[in-house]
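Dock pyridoxal-5'-phosphate; give full complex structure.
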Amino acid sequence: MNNYYDYAASTPVSQQVLDAMKPWENEKFANASSTHQAGRASAQAIQQARECIAEKIGARPSEIVFTSGASEANNLALKGLAFKHLDSKGHIITSEIEHKCILNACAFLESIGFEVTYLAPDKNGHVSPSSLAAEVRSNTILISIHHVNNELGTIQPIQEFGAIAFEHNIPFHTDAAQSFCKCDINVDDMDIDMLSLSGHKIYGPKGIGALYIRDARDSELVPLIHGGGQEAGLRGGTSPTPLIVGLAAAVQFYPIKSDPIEEQFLNVIAKFDFTRNGGMSVVPSTWNVTFQTDEEVKRFMSDYPWLISQGSACNALSNVASHVLTAIGMSEYIARRTYRISLPPYQLCDR
Ligand SMILES: Cc1ncc(COP(=O)(O)O)c(C=O)c1O
């Protein structure tokens, strides 16, 4: 697809990933829970994948729980932790510009008696550590703030959020669906207790992701899917060996250089009158742009009929200004001239 510029919504599965997955789809199909030789081979492949993901974020393999993607990982982090406090309930801090799966999980938790504070971002989409510190309460049970924003590309200061959470002995979760592999992450240096990631944002398959959980076995997180004890009892269901192997291959073969598409894009966008939203600290592959006039939008759309999104893929269906753009103070009128153009991602930033 040579007119596709929506890589923050999803990436293609790379050839290396497809090759790595293939044998596990048919020849080596045994259930990883089976105790015979073929089953053990699947279990070993899964273990190697677990080691690869863990190493990427400075965690231990036993702290990685495979899920169907970042939405499930986020739900497991939030509900799994909240359900530990069902009797006493408690307070959760997040931000107004999280992915809808976090916001909807929080709304659900509010509906059953938890309190949630939604931190407001500044006009660039940054959530400030001081606003977080100001909202910490004695009954705060969880802080969950994303790493890179999916619509704006802004990089949040998660190390500082982690330090605040650590200081108050509150678990810190981050949704790293848009930063995993792009940005360096070390869960110890950044005081991260839980981290969500997704395969299809990094040239891996759809339907696979993971939740890092510090000391997973002792975490007492309540599983959302009870099953036959897979994933340390935290996520039941037959392990999808091909998808898990594919996720690890995606990490292993993640590109370190930008794609030539990026240069082509820079040449094109320079011909238009626009402002880039998200401030200075943004990932280079995500461009949130507001065209100066409706005419400029029309000219861009007719000259370059690209597959891009207005807001994120999820909001695009509802035809209203996204909650992220509204939260940074953008009017509905300006939001209509605002698009997310996202390029093939690659490894780029220190944090
Ligand atoms: C920041 C963020 N969180 C969560 C998700 C959901 O990920 P998945 O599609 O793996 O469930 C996405 C994907 O759009 C995302 O960008």
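Observed: The longest strand covers residues 286-291.
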